[in-house]
Amino acid sequence: MTPEPIHDPSGHPQPATRRTIPLWQKLVPWLITLACFAYLLTRIDAAAAREGQDVAGYLGDVFQGVDWGTWLALMIPYSAFFFLVDSAVVWRVINWFNTRLAYKDILPIRGSSYILSILNEQVGKGAMGVYLHRRHGVPGWEVGSSMIFIMFCEFYYLLFFATLGYAIAADRLPSQFAAIPWIALAALIFFAAFHLFMRGHFAAASDFRERPIWKAFREARVAHYLQIMLIRSPALLAAVVVYTLALRLFGVPSDFIGMLGVLPVIFFGAATPGPMRSVAITLWVVLFPGHEGAMTAFGFVQHNFFIFFNAAIGLLFLRRANRELFGTPKEAPEARA
């Protein structure tokens, strides 16, 4: 079967090509995972030895001490709430920069994309791009632009809350967190320059800015970035409450203000490529020293329940998503102003 030609922005057909991913790029997530689990095993083994136990018995005691019914009562509503907020972000961005969609119509494809996100969040976003191109005729590069815009906003939203948490509770956080205000300042300077460039306030003749992949950034105003942060904020604030209460179930003292400083950093780790969000699990142990077993168990069940429960939500929408994805495509929308 002959590969279908693709088109460059000028409309000229180009031969379809398949990009070969270098071996080192395939290995990096697994090497990160192995390094994280080796570190965790070393810390847990040392903690178990101090208690006069083996690793299995030490972790078994941690799991037996948790009230799992209460834990589920916290995590299930939070995961469902996150899905609704996350879908609202995608819906809002798509309506701004790509095509008109009702909120209820984004739920099936966003939910189904969580299934692919088990291994990599970016693969899930790619699935949404395929859906929008197939069903609504939105050019692939323009969908990609919106997905990058969402990730860009997510970085700044997490950095904002990490900075706020540090400002409120600097004395309760590890010394490494002192770098957060400087990172925030550098990121703010970059944003100002990047936004002015994308809006054409300098280097107006740049061809780089006119590429389809930057469509969302060319059209976005500061208000768009702020709206995405506002839409996402309830999900993080809910997470602060849920994770604080859940951590107490594992026998680790915690408070809401301290969690506000820690959780955005943990979520940064969760975005690192790698099976089972190994970086995020490791960060829990690093940030809560002296509770190696509890924090390993907590990080493992929190992040894996979250991604697998979201995937279960996706299964509820999978039939409809498949029907819409592989059904008759709609006509391409008219170009938006």
Task: Describe what is shown at a glance.
By secondary structure, the chain is mostly helical. It has helices at 23-50, 55-64, 68-97, 103-116, 121-136, 140-169, 180-198, 215-219, 222-249, 256-270, 278-287, 292-326, and strands spanning 6-7, 13-14. It has a two-stranded antiparallel ribbon with strand order 1-2.
Give a quick set of tags describing it.
two-stranded antiparallel ribbon; disordered C terminus; mainly alpha; about 70% helix; disordered N terminus; about 325 residues; about 0% strand
List the helices and strands and how they pair.
Layout lengths: L5 E2 L5 E2 L8 H28 L4 H10 L3 H30 L5 H14 L4 H16 L3 H30 L10 H19 L16 H5 L2 H28 L6 H15 L7 H10 L4 H35 L11
Q: How would you characterize this protein structure?
A:
By secondary structure, this protein is mainly α. It has a domain at 75-274 and 298-326. The chain has twelve helices and two strands. It has helices at 23-50, 55-64, 68-97, 103-116, 121-136, 140-169, 180-198, 215-219, 222-249, 256-270, 278-287, 292-326; strands at residues 6-7, 13-14. A two-stranded antiparallel ribbon has the order 1-2. A hairpin with a 5-residue loop joins strand 1 and strand 2 (13-14). Helix 10 (256-270) packs antiparallel against helix 11 (278-287). The longest helix is centred in the last third of the chain and has 35 residues, at 292-326. The protein starts with 5 loop residues before the first strand and ends in an 11-residue tail after the last helix.
